[in-house]
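Bit of a strange request maybe. I'm writing a small parser for structure token strings and I need a real example to test against, not something I typed by hand. Could someone generate the tokens for this chain?
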Amino acid sequence: MNEEEAKFWSRVDKSGGPNACWPWCGSLGTRPRDNYGLHKFNGKTRRANRIAWELWNKRSIPAGMFVCHTCDNPPCVNPAHLWIGDHKSNARDMVNKGRNVLVHVNTTHCQNGHLLSEVGVYLKKDGYRQCRACALKWGRERNKRLAEERKARAVQPPKDIQDCWPEDDR
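Reply from user aminoacidic:
Good idea to test on real output. This should exercise your parser:
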């Protein structure tokens, strides 16, 4: 095992044993709902589950393929829980396990307590329902923050045109 491999495996919690999930203890993704581990390996930042699969199987992941989890735990890098599949097989696995968005179709309130009625939600293209009240609040906060940033960056004109010339030139 070389130094980079040792560094990678040092960030994995294997304390649960060979059949348990091995959670990644390094950095995680920054996007919402992205709990996949990230690690710089051979000069490139990649998902930890993909690195774990390649190290364990001693070969590259075929182009266009995903490293999927039998445990449905994104931070897990236990090679016994990882399998290779395409988008279709990964989506089929998600539906078979009841993890698709439609599972939440009976949810009546958002996480902030707003009622999710027909008039109270945005239905996104991916089938995900977004609370209209939360989306509007988030949009107002974002617009206010952007306006403040634009204002801070703007160059303020001088109050008096005379302020543009030095005293000697007047």
